[in-house]
Amino acid sequence: MKSTIIAVFLCMIFTGIFSQNMQKIDSLHNELIMEKEDTVRVRLLNDLSAEYAYGNKEKALQYANQALELSNEILDAEGKGNSLNSIANVYYQHGEFQLARKNFQEAMDVFNELGDKLSVAKGYYYIGSVYFKEGAYEQVIDYMERANGLYDEVGFKQGIAGGLNMLGWVYNIQGYHDKAIVIFEEAHEVAIASGDKRILARVVNSMGQIYRGLGKYDLAIQHFEESYEISAELGDEINMSYTLNTLGAIYDDIGEYPKALETYERSLNLAEEIGSKSMIGRSLDNISIVYLNLSEYAKAMEYAQQAIEIAVEINDDRLTADGYMSLGIANAYNGEYEAAINYYTKGKVIYEKLKINIKVATCLNNIGSVYENQGKINEALENYKDALAIREMLGTKTGLANGLNNVGSIYSRLGNYQASLEYLNRAMAVSEETGNQSEKAHALFQIGIVNSKMGNMRASKQYLSGSLDIARQIGEKEMIRRALANLSSLSAETGNYREAYRYHVQFSEVHDSIYNEQKSKQLQELEQKYQSEAKQHQIEIQQANLDKQKLELEQQKIWKIALMIGVVLVLIVLGLVVNAFTQKRSENRKISALNQQITEKNNLLEQHIEELKITLENLQETQVQLIQSEKLAALGSLVAGVAHEINTPVGISVTAASSLVEETDRMADHYKHNRISRAEFKDYLNTTSQTAKLILSNMERTATMVQSFKQVSVDQSTEQQRTFKLKEYSEDVIRSLYPRLKGKKIKIDLDMDEKLEMNSYPGAFSQILTNLVLNSLVHGFDGKDQGSITLKARQDKKALLLEYSDDGRGIEPEMQDRIFEPFFTTDKKVGTGLGMHIVYNLVTQKLKGKITYSSKPGEGVIFLIKVHN
Description:
Layout: H1 2-15, H2 22-34, H3 38-52, H4 57-73, H5 77-93, H6 97-114, H7 117-134, H8 137-154, H9 157-173, H10 177-194, H11 197-213, H12 217-234, H13 237-253, H14 257-274, H15 277-293, H16 297-313, H17 317-333, H18 337-354, H19 357-374, H20 377-394, H21 400-414, H22 417-434, H23 437-453, H24 457-474, H25 477-493, H26 497-572, H27 577-672, H28 678-717, E1 722-725, H29 726-736, H30 738-741, E2 745-751, E3 757-760, H31 762-780, E4 786-796, E5 799-806, H32 835-846, E6 850-855, E7 861-868
Parallel strand pairs: 2-4
Antiparallel strand pairs: 1-3, 4-5, 5-7, 6-7
């Protein structure tokens, strides 16, 4: 996206955005026909060339060459220089940079002979812009400094601001962000001093772009909004549309995709209003990128294809190539690898023609990524290295660390560890120079993996730990997860099981966090979709009712008018009755038409209601799937908790057994050499007895927990009905929750007869009790150090009555009617809002029972459950 915006920025440098204003073109034609003064005709011909420059190369060159011939004929040196600039501008817009540079140079020579320093300065600026498009950044810096030197001599502050703005982009692309910021700030000051708000808006926009690249999104948004306000004040709709595109890119970067779509659509609407096909195409391509991020690949490809069609229509090769890139990404994500490579290759060919080498490198890098996903390692390496070579040739630091990491990773997979380390160490050095912590963490991680493969375990651990530290600093959870997983395995391989266990626990926490975030995001998206569709249907129903009311009012109004006309006609002239009758028939036809519209509206309303029913059925089906997912997640949490609990007694038993073996070996050695004393043997017997008791007690504890876990986990994963003792089974469930209760002063009492049996679904009962206890822990005892939970049960004829209560915070009155609703939770950070909804469904549907509750703030909650037994 960054390079896309650079391209649009360069277009704006020369002529804003090159939409063909046909009204202006017609006006210029008329002026040209009427004008007799040749010098004015030269200017009009050049103006016509500028209007056609972006869309119709042949016409643009035709008018510019006519202007050049006429200026030579009348010996108008200034007109000749302007005509040469017009010709150069046409070549520039169509990617013929060598011809553009040649004509800009000839124009500058003409102005130099005239002593026109301002026009010479603009010539330097134009040539520098051509070098910018070619990626020749040293030449850009040279020509921009020459231009600014002359601008300073003639006091043309707008030109200085524009030159500084270009220099800022050069340093930004090369990865020297701090220097770029300093230059942009200087350009900002000069633009303010110049009083030219157009150049000020563009400099402010450039500053927003660099802050976006550095991840400082608040500052970026602030600058984009300022640029938009300035452009709106000037009525510069082109820059308003362009700024909305850049602002939309920010929301895309930070994952606010609905807001990004809304902003891009505003840009699209504005571009359509002013007829700028270039900006229409750019907006469509940006919308395509948002749909890529939303994994809606069909929509992404649809918008990218529309952007390409417009690009072809206006001969915008750059936009065409960008559209191919979007199609390539969509197909790659969709697993259509051959199609992806085909589109990337098409884009690369165009970028090569335009000599936009940085984008050629991006295409090669993407092709390499596709080959790597296909397992074609050698092809991937070839493309990664070609991309890297281009970046090194350009001298840019942007993307360089990523390219080095890609090549290093491939060499690691091929077993060429020496070459891998060479590239990865270079990647780390570049990332340290540019301050790219993410690429540095990636390089350290890969170096750690290579050292592990080479058997250098200590070095591997050092690099992996460094990668972990950086990943934690920048909050890159996926890298944290991978580093912890490898550190855990590495520690286990070196025999440090305690450290391996510690890393594994941290890995599990991060892994669960990533999983929960993904699940929460999916739930939020589902909830938003549900709310949005429900709201839309409600609006449509309301609109249909309003339309119906409006039609009825129209009917009444028509009848009143007809009646009044009839009365007036009767009072005035009896002979006009015929005309009144005719008019009444006409009104009746209108009424019939209105009635027909009402019928159609009613049919449409019924259709919408049917669609809403289908949507609700789909949501209910999705809800069932989510409930099943929640149950499986709870079972996974149970497994992890029990594994953690049995680790301690098993560890103690292993240690004790090891000590017993050592003591026995020592006694056997004494026996072999006849050195056993009575005191030593007595100590040995005492030690053996104590150790055996320790092992036995811990193994019994482990067996108890495993037996409880086995029964509860089997019941949770199956749905078989059986008879079980309620208190004993409840104790097993509570015991499986001990990891969640550890460290909390929560007392749980089971008030029920030990002989009380229940013939039902133990898995459902386990899920109900688990969710109630977890609900108390998360919400009821939030902010409290201690508390108590009580579960009572009694038989009442053929029904079983269960009473669950806690003395926690209770439920606020405004929330009491919603606790069984799906997705409702008082704290989305720790809950999904499905726990109590699952309890309600299990009681009412699975167990065919009823559940009620009562609560007051600060006095806890009581749940009453009645099921058939």
